[in-house]
Design brief:
- The chain is an all-alpha fold.
- It has one domain.
- It has eight helices and no strands.
- α4 packs antiparallel against α5, α6 packs antiparallel against α8 and α7 crosses α8.
- It is globular, with a radius of gyration of 20 Å.
């Protein structure tokens, strides 16, 4: 009976998790649609009048915005156990899309945007570090998969997707701080530019730690049963 309850709560949590991801992905899609067709006077770019005239910034901005949506959706597919079991080829295809976009387009473009980020050097250093770690973690996930080290691949993907979700959590924290405290815009940027991804990464590390601990405990139990 307890096993049935545990399975029920696990599946309910998974459904809630994917429903939340899809909902926030939909909101991100609405944001992305504001920049189609590409123009200089859309939404966030209205705050970047000092750099929007630079061609390399516009290329980086639109490359990041247009590719980030595919990265977010491809990541959702990657973490579906049912997808991995039933459609392994599609899982690998989605993984390639996810990794190639981050390593070659979305991550480097995010780094260029970070150099010109709002909020001065505090926010700029946060966004640039986020972009660098995003590329590194994703590359390590790919390298681990190629080497056949699937547990390491999974761990690095947790870290990578935690940074991918910063696109959502940054906006959530920004909304929450403005709603609660009504701070100055730049003060908000100083906080959420770090909190938006560091918090996600800490959660990923906790999940990795407990997953490894659970795996070790099961291995010990099997050894004791065999003794």
């Amino acid at each position: 009976m307890q096993a049935v309850k545990n399975l029920y709560f696990k599946r309910t949590g998974q459904v809630a998790w994917y429903a939340a991801l899809l909902f926030f992905s939909y909101l991100m899609l609405l944001i992305t649609l504001q920049y189609i067709p590409a123009r200089r006077d859309a939404a966030f770019l209205l705050t970047k009048f000092d750099v929007v005239g630079m061609l390399h910034y516009r290329i980086a901005f639109f490359a990041h915005v247009y590719s980030a949506m595919f990265v977010l959706l491809a990541g959702i597919i990657q973490f579906s156990a049912a997808m991995r079991r039933r459609y392994p080829a599609q899982h690998r295809w989605a993984g390639r899309v996810y990794a190639y976009l981050i390593i070659f387009i979305t991550g480097p473009a995010g780094f260029i945007m970070g150099i010109y980020g709002n909020g001065g050097w505090i926010s700029q250093s946060a966004f640039c570090l986020l972009a660098v770690l995003w590329v590194i973690f994703t590359w390590k996930a790919v390298a681990a998969a190629i080497a056949g080290k699937m547990q390491a691949h999974k761990d690095w993907m947790y870290r990578s997707y935690a940074l991918t979700l910063s696109a959502i959590t940054l906006r959530f924290w920004k909304w929450l701080f403005v709603w609660l405290f009504q701070p100055r815009p730049m003060d908000v940027y100083h906080v959420v530019s770090w909190l938006g991804w560091v918090g996600n990464l800490l959660i990923a590390e906790v999940l990795i730690y407990y997953a490894l601990k659970k795996k070790r405990n099961k291995r010990v139990e099997r050894m004791l049963e065999a003794a």
